[in-house]
Amino acid sequence: MSRFRKPPNDVFVSTDIEADGPVPGLYSMLSLASAAYGDDGSLLDTFSVNLETLPEAGAHPATTQWWEQRPEAWEMARRDPKSPEAAMRAYRDWLNSLDGRPVFVAWPAAFDFSFVNYYLLRFTGEAPFGYAALDIKSYAMAIHKRSSYHRTTKDRLPSRWFEPELRHSHVALDDALEQGALFMAIYREALAPGPGDVNPSDYTEFPDW
């Protein structure tokens, strides 16, 4: 038997969450949205849900003040909320329906992934992403050859990477689509072949390490 296998088909799941505080458990995830992309940049599907707050959790004063300045986004995050159990089971089922292994993608991944992973494990007992979480800011820093993570900000990235019609509104699905398009633009540019480059499609098997 060969110890080699075909590589998994990655599905890039651009994800944005909105919350009422900086960490899960002490505070609640208010809304969750994902946009799934194939490695050719095609938008495969989307998912969006608002969640009821955790009964034992509070709301962080600074985050509450931040939301007070964004009443339209707050109203969108509070429409028709589902129980965390129902929301996360539906999300798990959606992830499992994707044709490939999901890779969590966000800006910043550290914040959004902490909530999504906590809620998935708490309310479904499963972690469909494992620890496959890709931070767009880190990826952009490497591809754009920046020497500073903190100075790798969206206003310093090439305009060709952005879709003008997509906006960052703090509505979860809007933001998932905006950052998903950004990531796929960077990804496609990074994989554009240069002179003498090897075509990755020439290789169909990798060690099962």
Note down, in words, how this protein is organized:
The chain has 209 residues and is of the alpha/beta class. 35% of the residues lie in helices and 19% in strands. The protein contains six helices and seven strands. The protein has helices spanning 61-68, 71-77, 84-97, 109-124, 136-143, 172-191; strands at 4-5, 10-19, 29-37, 43-50, 101-106, 133-135, 206-207. The strands form two sheets. Strands 4-3-2-5-6 form a five-stranded mixed beta sheet. A two-stranded antiparallel ribbon has the order 1-7. The chain is globular. The chain starts with a strand and ends with a strand. Residues 202-209 have low confidence and may be disordered.
For the record, the CATH class is: Alpha Beta
Major β-sheet annotation: 5 strands, mixed
Share of β-strand residues: 15-25%
Write the CATH architecture name.
2-Layer Sandwich
Order of helices and strands: EEEEHHHEHEHHE
Computed Rg: 18 Å
**Strands of the biggest beta sheet: in what spatial order?**
4-3-2-5-6
Number of helices: 6
As a percent range, the share of helical residues equals 25-40%
Q: Are there runs of 5+ residues with pLDDT below 50, and where?
A: 202-209
Assigned CATH superfamily = Ribonuclease H-like superfamily/Ribonuclease H
- Which geometry do the CA atoms define? globular
N-to-C span: 15 Å
Helix and strand layout, with pairings?
Elements: E1 4-5, E2 10-19, E3 29-37, E4 43-50, H1 61-68, H2 71-77, H3 84-97, E5 101-106, H4 109-124, E6 133-135, H5 136-143, H6 172-191, E7 206-207
Parallel strand pairs: 2-5, 5-6
Antiparallel strand pairs: 1-7, 2-3, 3-4
